[in-house]
Amino acid sequence: MQKDIRQVLNEGYSEAIRDVLWGHIYLTPEMQALTKSKAFMRLTRIMQLGPALYTYPGATHTRAAHSVGVYHLSRRLIQDLCAKGADAWVSAPGICSFLCAALLHDLGHFPYTHSLKELPLKSHEELTGELILAEPVKSLVARTGADPYFTAAIVDTKLPCSGETELLFYRKLLSGVLDPDKLDYLNRDARYCGVPYGAQDVDFTYSRLYPHKERGVDIDTRGITSIESILFAKYLMYRSVYWHRSVRAATAMVKKALQGGLAGGVLKKEELYGLDDQGLFEVFSGRSHPLFYLAEAVRDGQLYGTAMEVPYDEKKYPKLAGGTDFSSQEQDLADAVSKITGKKPKPGEILIDLPESISFETGLYVNDGNCTFSESSSAFTTETVEAFVKSLRIIRIFIHPRYDFSDMPVSLAEEILQR
């Protein structure tokens, strides 16, 4: 291994952070300074799983803790890959930039997990890139030996890279099938929720990874089980935690309040950037809008119940495809309930929720099998993975507690959703 690469990976890491998952995590003094910046400290006030704590009370861990964990696993990963030959095409400044990108990858993340994800806002990756390129973070990044633009471009893939091979290599490491982000959040979220599904064997996984200049990393046939484990863990965590019906209810309620505020001109997009969990709810206070009571109800843990849930089928429910605002269908449902019960629902008392489409990455190359993972001996075929994704997308109708679930006949609701 080249001397400058060895030095940047192993020397000067004198500052320790004690982590629940990974024990002592060591940073250089310059890296530690990044964790004391105002932008990073905001992450200490954003819970990683937002409303999941209403179902899993232990889920109070923060985006900051997760970010430090991703940095730690990224350092371990690049150390292993450089020992296996990646030092032939990486540079010392590039490694510093990669480690900064790992530490800061969630710097622009919105509060309350993904309640804001489907709104017409900048992506959190774009916001992260902007924060890295703004003072004081820009200067703090430079002091670590990293290049601020290079660091920002690793996270925000929309930033031009001019065919930079090393940059593309780091992008694939930070966001891929077996990336440090996923390995940390699955382990961390499972630990704090008290569920067994997410635990991953990082030591074994890293031992089966091999650097590739264009693809990022390859695996060998012994590493196939690592991908199988992470795919099934991700599926179970989405099914049991991330998209639990209570989490989806809270998400739908907050999203509806935000949509109403933006559409009515009561809220501006710019007000939703740079918030922490408390700041998000403060945005609604002191302002008048007929949907803002939804956010207050979520803050107080008064979540809607599930009146109906059916598997999403794009052919059966074409009007819901690609949509995030279901106001028209919600009004039709409210009119139907009004006819049945004689009670006229207020705006926001009946909500439709459909989670966004997600992907289960399986694109790793099996180097001693001369095939991709999906072409290997794994039982996780392309069809199996697609079935995972399809089974997770469930249409739910959430309804205010003052209504009985029987007030929403399933056959009538399905007919309205198909219009």
Automatic annotation (TrEMBL):
<dbReference type="Pfam" id="PF01966">
    <property type="entry name" value="HD"/>
</dbReference>
<dbReference type="InterPro" id="IPR006674">
    <property type="entry name" value="HD_domain"/>
</dbReference>
<dbReference type="InterPro" id="IPR045509">
    <property type="entry name" value="HD_assoc_2"/>
</dbReference>
<dbReference type="InterPro" id="IPR003607">
    <property type="entry name" value="HD/PDEase_dom"/>
</dbReference>
<dbReference type="Pfam" id="PF19276">
    <property type="entry name" value="HD_assoc_2"/>
</dbReference>
<protein>
    <submittedName>
        <fullName>HD domain-containing protein</fullName>
    </submittedName>
</protein>
<feature type="domain" description="HD/PDEase">
    <location>
        <begin position="59"/>
        <end position="195"/>
    </location>
</feature>
<dbReference type="InterPro" id="IPR050135">
    <property type="entry name" value="dGTPase-like"/>
</dbReference>
<dbReference type="GO" id="GO:0008832">
    <property type="term" value="F:dGTPase activity"/>
</dbReference>
<dbReference type="GO" id="GO:0006203">
    <property type="term" value="P:dGTP catabolic process"/>
</dbReference>
